[in-house]
Amino acid sequence: MTPIPQPPGEPAAAPPSATSTPPSLGPSAGVSPPLSSADTSSSLSSAGASPSLPSAGASPSRPSSAGMRRARRRDRQVYLSSHPLLFALLAATRRTPVRKLGSTLLVHSPEAFRDGLTRIPLDRTAAGTTGGAAGDLTGGELLFNQDGADHRGSRRGLADALSAEGVQRLRPIWTEVLDRRLAPLAEGTPIDLVDVTAEMAGATAAALLGTDVDPRALAAAARSAAAAAAREHLPGPPRPGARRAARTATAHLTDLLTQPSTCPTPASASTDSPTSAFASPSATASACASASAPAPASASASADGSALAAMLAVAAVNTTVAALPRAAAWCADADLWAYAESAPDALTSELLRVTAPTPLLPRVAAAPGTLGSCPVDAGDRLILVARHAVDAHRTDPCPAAPAPPQVAQLVFGAGSHACPGARLARLQIADALQALARHRPRVTAARVDRRSALPGWSRLILAPTR
Ligand code: HEM
């Protein structure tokens, strides 16, 4: 059985028979509401975002059930082509909110999913978990594997850059990419949305980190590093060379981020931009970089800085490259484009819910507890199935009556480790769907990415219909 490889740091989930290692402390509860792009539209023009994004107005007709079935069938391919057995196991157990198989708990219900992230103390450094993989690969303390005051300090370092204002500062970066890369659609020429998304995510990550590294090179390096890490963590006998390949890919990414920067991107030029604590050494060392970005105090601070920058690039790029093409394919197949104009936030939220880009969160309990009615022992492995917690497998997307935010937001986790990039991700996807909508594109070709860390497409060709 092969697992669904995991994202930014969501490494491959170990199989139910896998053993695990124990303790450390876990997070507390708290689901932050999604940002409405309507909330932010007034600052869009002042932030210099593209004026060419379409405005609201269309009144969408009810999506056809044939279109919805087509969308679901296509999207299921991203799991079935790569992980049919895991998909089948999870589908077979999902009627029980929590199922314990040996020392592994398969967690499906929204309540148990949330409790798994907020009430059960988690071992953030255990092998086979996101934090374990992040620390193992880079040797650093990287949010995912941190706890307590250290973790809060790291989160504070990101808070400004990923705040509502910080995201607005970054917005012109991705709207410029969208304007330029979607322009061929207006001429009737198809585009590969995976390639466009990679550039958009790479450019945004580079701006966030205050480096002027080539966006496509950054995206390619972040995707390779995540894919190599996921392959290394596949269950089964050790794969010769997998560890070396993962280290080489991570080193390449880190090298890119430590290259001397010549000039900052527009977002990092602002004195209150980049993410001071997360700015890559290239940015902090650069004469062009923000004056507010502190230079690394020592070699070890510098190493930590580059490891954090690499982790952030991996987190931002891989999730976006998985999420947007899947959302757009669903939108095209089910003909939901009119909602991108009239209700972009609700559409984005529903498409994120049904695609659940990080479908499994592998975690390890650090102390005993209870999930659903199942006892949890220290060292038990928790496979938290986001896809089922948000009812992605059963309820079609309905932008006219979207799932409540407390449910929809679970695709970004919960508690003190909940995704800090959720606001950025939602706005990027909403902008991209809006920009695509005016061409009413349809999918003419799609290829599953069998190597990527997250289920997704390696190629998604969209052709305009108007
Ligand atoms: C659709 C896009 C995205 C999805 C579905 C997603 C999902 C997630 C999930 C499920 C987690 C784990 C949360 C938990 O353990 O409770 C997470 C953590 C994280 N994400 Fe995202 N994410 C996305 C985009 C981003 C972006 C754009 C960034 C950066 C700008 C980012 C940065 C992070 C970081 C740094 C963490 C670790 C947080 C911590 O441990 O404190 N993510 N993400």
Describe the structure.
The protein is of the alpha+beta class. The protein has one domain: Cytochrome P450 (Cytochrome p450), CATH 1.10.630. 47% of the residues lie in helices and 9% in strands. It is built from 18 helices and 9 strands. The chain has helices at residues 37-40, 65-80, 84-93, 110-118, 130-138, 148-159, 164-186, 193-209, 215-232, 242-258, 266-269, 281-285, 299-333, 337-342, 344-355, 386-389, 405-408, 422-437; strands spanning 98-101, 104-107, 191-192, 360-364, 369-371, 374-376, 381-385, 442-448, 457-463. The strands form 3 sheets. It has a 4-stranded mixed beta sheet with strand order 1-2-7-4. A 3-stranded antiparallel beta sheet has the order 3-9-8. It has a two-stranded antiparallel ribbon with strand order 5-6. α10 (242-258) packs across α13 (299-333) and α13 (299-333) runs parallel beside α18. It is globular. The model is unreliable at 1-58 and 263-301 (pLDDT under 50). It binds protoporphyrin IX containing FE. Protoporphyrin IX containing FE binds at residues 8, 117, 143-144, 155, 208, 312, 315-316, 319-320, 323, 357-358, 361, 411-415, 417-421, 424-425. The site of protoporphyrin IX containing FE has 27 residues, from α13 and α18.
Describe the structure in brief.
GO terms for molecular function: heme binding; iron ion binding; monooxygenase activity; oxidoreductase activity, acting on paired donors, with incorporation or reduction of molecular oxygen. By secondary structure, this protein is α+β, with helices and mostly antiparallel strands.
